[in-house]
Amino acid sequence: MSTRLTINDLRKAAAMLGCDFNVLRAVDIVESAGAGFDKQDRVKILFEPVTFNRMTKGVFIKIEFAKYLAIDLFKNPLNRESYRLDQNEQLRKVANLAQWAKIATEKDPFIVAAYPNPIHALAMADAIRKMAPSVEPIGHQSTSWGRYQIMGFNFRFAGYRILADFVTAMRRSEADHLAAFCNFVVGRGLSRHLATKNFDAFFKGYNGPAYKQMGYDTKFRAALASLEKAP
């Protein structure tokens, strides 16, 4: 059973970061509705196809096999359709994609359908095979993890030397989620924005430049206002 955070844990983290308690609680609510694990005790994750496509250099974008696995490698970061799918199943399918990539050839029907020109098919099959060993770890890096939805490619900022240790910790407990969040916020120089309530600067650094389009700031301000009104 995964370990869950307490209010006292959040108070200690807010004090360490030098921010108001309700500010941290509002971030907590927005990122994962205040829980790092689902009802099946699986860590909450979101697989980001756009990031995966970029990190795999686009080699799978035209391959029907990816669509067959329901891995939609769309290019638009605001397209959130895949979020409705089972995210843990998405990562399992990424592992399947990695296994297929190891034995891909220019004669594979998925590659032939995407690249009818034999020369192009040969070149793409070669590129896919070379990418194969990296596909599963790239899938982990292209996923946001836990109660604070930290992207896997930020594992070093979260306090881990290797990706596998980060993934293990994210699957272990919410205490690990909170520690990774604090490490990330401090490491990226974002704690000062929480302390001074410069929320736009915080969300730009934490969620990226499209944070407004994705509604993070609006949800956060609504959550914070509700917390501050509570007795």
Q: Which short descriptors sum up this protein?
A:
12 helices, three-stranded antiparallel beta sheet, single chain, 2 domains, 231 residues
Task: Give the overall form.
Answer: elongated
- Treating each run of at least 4 consecutive H or I residues as one helix, how many helices? 12
**Cα-atom radius of gyration:** 20 Å
The low-confidence runs, each spanning 5 or more residues with pLDDT under 50, are: none
Mean residue pLDDT: 92
Task: Give the end-to-end Cα distance, rounded to a whole number of Å.
Answer: 33 Å
Largest sheet, spatial ordering of strands? 1-2-3
Q: Give the DSSP E fraction (strand runs of 2 or more residues).
A: under 5%
Q: Count structural domains.
A: 2
> What summary fits the major beta sheet?
3 strands, antiparallel
Question: Fraction of residues in helices?
Answer: 55-70%
Per DSSP E runs of 2 or more residues, the count of β-strands stands at 3
Instruction: Please identify the structural class as seen in this structure.
Output: mainly alpha
Helix and strand pattern: HHEHHHHHEEHHHHH
